[in-house]
Amino acid sequence: MPNTPAVELIDVTRSYPGVRALAGVSAVFPAGTFTAVMGPSGSGKSTLLHCAAGLDRPDTGRVLLAGRDIAGLREPKLTEARRRVAGFVFQSYNLLDSLSVWHNVLLPQRLAGVRPDRAWAREVLTRVGLAGREHARPAQLSGGQRQRVALARALAARPEVIFADEPTGALDLAAGREVLGLLREAVDDLGATVVMVTHDPAAAGHADRVVFLADGRIVTEMTRPAAEAVAARMTAVSAHAGSAAAGVDAR
Ligand SMILES: Nc1ncnc2c1ncn2[C@@H]1O[C@H](COP(=O)(O)OP(=O)(O)OP(=O)(O)O)[C@@H](O)[C@H]1O
Fold first, then answer.
1. How many angstroms does the Cα of residue 42 sit away from the middle of ligand 1?
2. Is the per-residue pLDDT at 41 higher than 60?
3. Closest C-alpha residue for ligand 1 atom 16
4. pLDDT at 220 (0 to 100)
5. Which of 81, 123, 189, 227 gives the lowest tally of CB atoms within 10 Å of its CB?
6. Alpha carbon 227 to chain centroid, angstroms
7. CA distance 182 to 118
8. Nearest residue CA, atom 28 of ligand 1?
9. For the complex shown, is ipTM > 0.90?
């Protein structure tokens, strides 16, 4: 089904006590594309990512992950669906310090109960520039190297979708650029779909498209984003966030 979107959200809402984190979000993330999700602090970016990825369940609405509606799934079916199609990269790497690089990379497949594809794991470690570091512990690596291990771990399971939450948030400029380049390659060379939350207009400039959230709604979007234009749009969105004009169209 080549035209099935990798992820689709249909009128998704999610509230926490006293807060409407997502107030009715519909969005399509086509297969083989790289989308950045931006918006002011508290606008619902992480909640959107978590609902899209099956890490959280919406209150209402539908979430189609690789064509399957996961919004109504309960554990352990939700975890199964997530492991089958999604890979994750978080700001804080989320590596296990007690395991070597190699075992960190293979862990999601082991947890999923599938036989790890070792040849492919070696290939992805080479792709991210870590061939030869298989025996190192995460604590022996730089932040940029740790994030590249996290990316290798995500890629090793050949996910259809990689969800990245502020993947460059803890990295310096050069290390951040490397990680963004590798996410771009995952899309261009491996056909993956990337959905990335970021605060950084330069990071969003690596994407094909940026969707902007304010007050739990998508208020505008931009294709083929250039960093300067993204920064200007963010300023416009932030100026309207929290006001009744949450439906701002800043184009
Ligand atoms: N587990 C939770 N319990 C209670 N409130 C939550 C929870 N997660 C998120 N929220 C609230 O929902 C709203 C949206 O949060 P979310 O983390 O999605 O925003 P964000 O745009 O990712 O913010 P930031 O850029 O600061 O990370 C916020 O008001 C937040 O305080």
1. 5
2. yes
3. 44
4. 96
5. 189
6. 19
7. 20
8. 42
9. yes
76 cis-preceded (ω within 30 degrees of 0): yes
- Number of neighbouring beta carbons within 10 Å of residue 204: 30
Residue 46 beta carbon below 6 angstroms from any ligand 1 atom: yes
Token pair, residue 30, equals 């086509």
Q: What is the pTM of this model?
A: 0.93
Residue environment code for 25-52, b if the CB has 16+ CB neighbours within 10 A, otherwise e: bebebebbbbbbbbbbebbbbbbbbbbb
> Alpha-carbon distance 239 to 223, whole Å?
21
Alpha-carbon gap, residue 39 to 109, rounded angstroms: 33
- Please state, as a whole number, how many other Cβ atoms lie within 10 Å of the Cβ of residue 9: 24
Distance from the alpha carbon of residue 220 to the mean position of ligand 1, in angstroms: 20
**Number of Cα atoms under 13 Å in the Cβ half of residue 124:** 26
Domain boundaries, given as residue ranges, for the chain: 7-240
- The domain covering 7-240 belongs, at the CATH homologous superfamily level, to P-loop containing nucleotide triphosphate hydrolases (3.40.50.300)
